[in-house]
């Protein structure tokens, strides 16, 4: 079991790689079909680049959502996640922190139509 102190230590060691940004544009997504109340943008803090399919697979295992979700890539270790159910969306968004492989934090931010800023973290 990961304690809050362990999580704080993991987060304290995070840093950006060369060329990596804290802001990601979602303008490439087809925004006419996106319901912002069921959508998040997620960033996996991991030293290696992980495919969006792998992130989705890990999330399916740790979230156990009832109605599923779809994942689209936005950048290196950054994905757009569209939930099919409001209860699943709310539980996942407010159930942070999430760790993949028990050590890599996945930071979720609500979709805001244009840009998502990963400069700060709610926990």
Give a description of the structure.
The protein has 123 residues and is of the alpha+beta class. A hairpin with a 3-residue loop joins strand 5 and strand 6. It contains 3 helices and 7 strands; from the N terminus they run H-E-E-H-E-E-H-E-E-E. It has a single domain, classed as 2-Layer Sandwich (Alpha-Beta Plaits). 24% of the residues lie in helices and 28% in strands. It holds the Pfam family DUF4283. This is OLC1v1023398C1.
Topology record:
Layout: H1 4-12, E1 23-25, E2 39-44, H2 52-63, E3 69-75, E4 78-83, H3 86-94, E5 98-100, E6 104-110, E7 115-117
Antiparallel strand pairs: 1-7, 2-4, 2-6, 3-4, 5-6
């Amino acid at each position: 079991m990961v304690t809050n102190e362990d999580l704080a230590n993991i987060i304290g060691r995070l840093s950006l790689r060369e060329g990596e940004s804290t802001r990601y544009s979602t303008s490439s997504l087809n925004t006419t079909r996106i319901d912002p109340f069921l959508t998040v943008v997620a960033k996996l803090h991991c030293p290696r680049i992980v495919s969006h399919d792998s992130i989705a697979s890990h999330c399916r295992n740790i979230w156990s959502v009832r109605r599923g979700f779809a994942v689209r890539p936005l950048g290196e270790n950054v994905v757009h996640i569209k939930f099919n159910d409001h209860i699943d969306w709310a539980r996942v968004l407010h159930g942070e922190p999430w760790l993949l492989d028990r050590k890599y934090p996945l930071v979720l931010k609500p979709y805001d139509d244009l840009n998502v800023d990963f400069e700060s973290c709610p926990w």
